[in-house]
Structure of Ribose-5-phosphate isomerase A:
Amino acid sequence: MTQDEMKRNAARAALAFIPANTIVGVGTGSTVNHFIDALGEIKAQIAGAVSSSEQSTARLKALGIPVLDLNTVERFSVYIDGADEINPQRHMIKGGGAALTREKIVAAVAETFICIVDNSKQVDVLGKFPLPVEVIPMAAAYVSRELAKLGGRPVVRENVITDNGNLIIDVHDLQITDPLATEQQINGIVGVVTNGIFAHRCADIVLVGTAEGTQTLK
Ligand SMILES: O=C(CO)[C@H](O)[C@H](O)COP(=O)(O)O
């Protein structure tokens, strides 16, 4: 089975966790694209979607799924999103698609975060995948110097502007042994919008696509 088939199976398994008439929070990425396609098949049974990126919004709208403004929604039941890495504590690195800030905001409003991944994303310690950090453009050099002091190797992602008009710094070679502390520490650097560690708001349920089928971890 290919990696993409495992992603698609995990994405389709998420449909079983969507209550009738609910608003669905939708993440970003290739795994989520499979989920959006599956959501299109049950669009009559949901109240609409809240989206974490312009890319997902366009795909949702193309399938006729209404996209709601998060400011009009107080709370909703499920948020479905992928991850670049996930550890056994269900802490994640996200932001490979540069949508980390909106993803973190939408996830904060959801009751349950369901993470959909193929098994290549499972790690014991976060940090092999370079950690994305969204920064205000004028702060990029300062933030890079501060990130280097933490032991990482910051590289501004070329030709990428986020949906919020900001830059992404990818931090290579960070061993993230305490994700809660590192998430907080990096978010404390002036000029950082947010970083891609999702530890304070980790996943509640993980659907892992494997060659043997999709596993559910809680
Ligand atoms: O955080 C993300 C986007 O900002 C994605 O969830 C993450 O990059 C995983 O992407 P994919 O499903 O394409 O492997």
Remarks:
- The longest strand covers residues 110-118.
- DSSP finds six helices and 13 strands in the chain.
